[in-house]
Every structure is written in C-alpha cells, then in structure tokens.
Amino acid sequence: MNTFLDKLEKAAMDYEAGRMLRDDSEVEIDVFEDSDSGPGIFVSDYSEERGSCELVRKICEIGKIAGNDIVTLCNKHGWAYCLSA
Fold first, then answer.
1. How far is Cα 69 from Cα 73, in angstroms, rounded to an integer?
2. Engineering a disulfide at 28: which of 36, 46, 55, 68 sits with its beta carbon 3.0 to 4.6 angstroms away?
C-alpha cells in the first residue's frame, strides 16, 4: 500500500466532490519539476476552456509515487494527468 497514492486519491476525490473552482473545471494530477511550492505531485484544477491548470494541493515530493501508479489512478477515475518530470 502506497500511503502517498492513497493521499493523492483522497485529496482529488474530495476536490472533485464539490470543491471545484469553476463549473468548467476538472481534476488533473500534475507532476512538476518547478513550481512556486517546489517540485512535487499536485492535485490541480484544469480547464480546457481556460487552457491552463491551477495547483490546488501539493501531495508529496516527486518520486514518492511511481508515474505508472499515477496513470492507473487517473484512468480509474477519469482524471487528466500531466507527467512533466
């Protein structure tokens, strides 16, 4: 069991369940090398209409969750992902 993966899933599900910033938003999981919060894995609010994402919550540092586990989790829930690391 990967507790960081569980934390990521819970945070994204909680956000999706009613804490979305806008009506056109969807959950996206992002892996960023460089961000204001430092490199890490984030739950983000993505809007195709806006053409951008807003970081919602940093879950952990890069490398704490395997990329293929993120892809599997996103596919399970229908979330978008951006693995830029």
1. 6
2. 46
For β-strands 80-83 and 40-47, DSSP reports them as: unpaired
Tell me phi and psi for residue 38, to 5 degrees: 90, 160
d(CA 53, CA 31) in angstroms, rounded, equals 12
Tell me the torsion sign for CA atoms 67, 71, 73, 74: positive
State pTM to two decimals. Answer: 0.88
CA dihedral sign of residues 26, 39, 67, 60? negative
Q: Spell out the domains of the chain, with CATH numbers in brackets.
A: 3-83 (3.30.720)
- How far apart CA 74 and CA 61 sit, in angstroms, is 18
